[in-house]
Design goal:
By secondary structure, the chain is mainly alpha-helical. It has one domain: Four Helix Bundle (Hemerythrin (Met), subunit A) (Up-down Bundle), CATH 1.20.120.450. The chain is built from seven helices and two strands. It has a two-stranded antiparallel ribbon with strand order 1-2. The protein is globular and about 45 Å long. The model has no long low-confidence stretch (mean pLDDT 85).
Length: 182
Amino acid sequence: MLDTVKTLFVNQYEAALSMLKACIDGCPDTVWNAPVANYRFSQVVFHTLYFTDLYLGRDDEASFRGQPFHLQLAPLFADLSADREPFEDPTPRSYDRASLLTYLEFCRRKVIEIMATETEESLSAPERFGGDFSRAELHVYNIRHIHHHAAQLSLRLRLDTNEGVDWVGSGWREAAFAERPA
């Protein structure tokens, strides 16, 4: 059963990340900094990937921020400091598409690596962010978070370009845009 659950998590993370990637790929430059709720389009993408990455890990936040990927792409994480919560004071900063696609691919690989190490005990353990649920439920929460923001971004694209993102049910797919309504 453990292998089934781990495969399920990988497939659903990949489906959610596929839809997020379709939003990034399909976003015209004219919409890249358009508002999506309280943030810009590119900020919502970064926010989604940052928390996907954070929730996948097992480290404290200081170790998380010091991981090699974060150091390698230091400019991407330049606005984050140890003395304030990420995104507590949104700035008008825009994130470049190429860096966010690199970050998305990093998160996708991290999903596979982390799921390979999960055990029945680790999935049953309390999650480390103070919620009242297990690490397994944190994975479900994380997937829902990705889908939530992919839906916001997809709506922004639908409103601005009259195109939407195709649904991905399971696994990694190069998601495409849905046909324009007649």
